[in-house]
Amino acid sequence: MRRKRTDRRQRRGSGQDFMLVHSARLFPLIVSRQRSFQWRLPSGAAAAAAAALSRGLKSMEPLKATHDPEVPTINPPANVMCPALTTDTDPDPSDTDKTPAVGLLPGETVVREGKAAILFPSANEVFYNPVQEFNRDLTCAVITEFARDVLAQRGVKVVVPGEKERVVVSLSEEASEADAPAEEGEKMKNGAEEPAVTARVGEKCERGLRVLEGLAASGLRSVRFALEVPGLQSVTANDFSANAAGLIARNAQYNGVGHLLRASCRDASMLMYEMRAKKERYDVIDLDPYGSPACFLDAAVQAVSEGATGQEDDEREKLGGPLWAEPIHNLPFVQKVLSAVSGNPSRFGTSKRIEGVLSMVTEELEDVPLYYAVDSLSSTIHCNTPPLLQFRSALLHAGHRVSLSHACKNGIKTDAPPAAIWDVMRCWEKANPVKREKLSQTSPAFKILSTEPSGGGVTTNLQDKRKKCQNKRKNQITDSSQLKNFPCKRFRQGSCSHGEKCCYSHDLQSTNEDNME
Ligand SMILES: C[S@@+](CC[C@H](N)C(=O)[O-])C[C@H]1O[C@@H](n2cnc3c(N)ncnc32)[C@H](O)[C@@H]1O
């Protein structure tokens, strides 16, 4: 997400991209978060420790406002070593002990996800939702790609676990020159400068990203960032619940990431607004509230850095009122994440699902940010729901562009105007009539159905044709060399690893996709 152009004039030297996070902003939009299942541990003796941490507050109760934001707000129990809780986003550089010193308290359980092992107390003290593993995997994947991009420009190469090292080939024809060590860095195959500094997971990178997780609960997500994402300078894991913040501090220690991860116990909005006055803001902000993140957006805009690249931004993205009316995905960036995850599938437990969702994202209409939920359309006129395929075919038949949406299984994105959408629904209703006598004359259903459809309705013809043609090419291919006339789907999705050896074409411009029909 990028700051509005007008803001640039207010900020000296800006004109830059502004990551109100390539990661955090992307996630709520490209990932549907289901809060249908929350896992909470039964109560037990850890409540005692939690009570000590919370200074007697009830579970999940926010701390009362403190006038001095620098004063740590939590007193850890004597038997638990915790990294300091503070509003300062930079972990104490002297805190480099990576040996876990925190053990399980009675009644606590350890939950493992990704590379993290998280202590969870008994009772409903701190939120944990295992269904969100996919979301956390995807967040790690996206921040990794963002770090790769940003840090390359700061002369740092990130080392991603499981990825094969790139072969460094000297451009020089002279063997002696090729053997000579490069002073600043090595030349890569494409002539670009290979950064001499590397950043590995778990290491603090001075030129790395500053990450804020504003609503961190147990700190699981932040601990995973610290253990799985290379190129981080610091991770601040914040939660206004004293129980949660205490647990974050212990989990940082338990996972040996106290040198990178700092727990903070603040209201997320206040914490972010205070960053407005500071020079060094966050490069990445992750917001994971129970409901909509909208109430945090204004503060987040103040807290995000001025942009890592300094590149001039010629894109026309704007935040208009409460509605984002521009593309919600940066397609080349999504393709990079997709390609990295497909090429290194063992890195995340949910890699297959990430590939599925991101592939769908790459096929979505880029310039249509919103979608219609077909079941909502039918509920408006009280009729049954047309099959997605037929609804889609009707719009295509009428000459509109259509795609599915990753965000909703019954969602259709289209450039068709609302009148065309309702026309399709009217046609559908003709074949599947609604009991008009039951409709109130003032209802939207009554009004919509009072107009006669002008044609172009839902038809089964296209569906039948598609079924007939499915898996049957017009001209059967007998020679495998003919496959070169067809575009490679995986290449289009950024995930083909066969390179020149691929039997399909990587020249998507000149191959005729109709061949695939
Ligand atoms: C959905 S949970 C976060 C889960 C976590 N990000 C994860 O991946 O496991 C939301 C958390 O936000 C915290 N919270 C809610 N409002 C807040 C606010 N205004 N400031 C800080 N924390 C807040 C709650 O205490 C809760 O722990």
TrEMBL record:
EC number of this enzyme: 2.1.1.216
GO CC term (a single one): nucleus
EC primary class: transferase
Organism: Scophthalmus maximus
Protein name: tRNA (guanine(26)-N(2))-dimethyltransferase
Keywords per UniProt: Metal-binding, Methyltransferase, RNA-binding, S-adenosyl-L-methionine, Transferase, tRNA processing, tRNA-binding, Zinc, Zinc-finger
Lineage, broadest ranks: Eukaryota, Metazoa, Chordata, Craniata, Vertebrata
Family label: Belongs to the class I-like SAM-binding methyltransferase superfamily. Trm1 family.
Chain segments carrying region Disordered: 172-195
Ranges of compositional bias, category Acidic residues: 174-183
Gene3D superfamilies the UniProt entry points to: N2,N2-dimethylguanosine tRNA methyltransferase, C-terminal domain, Vaccinia Virus protein VP39
UniProt entry tagged with the keyword Lipid metabolism: no
Organism superkingdom: Eukaryota
Catalytic activity: guanosine(26) in tRNA + 2 S-adenosyl-L-methionine = N(2)-dimethylguanosine(26) in tRNA + 2 S-adenosyl-L-homocysteine + 2 H(+)
All residue ranges annotated as the C3H1-type domain in the record: 482-509
Gene Ontology biological-process entries: tRNA N2-guanine methylation
Zn-finger segments (C3H1-type): 482-509
A Pfam family hit: TRM
UniProt-recorded Gene Ontology molecular function terms: tRNA (guanine(26)-N2)-dimethyltransferase activity; tRNA binding; zinc ion binding
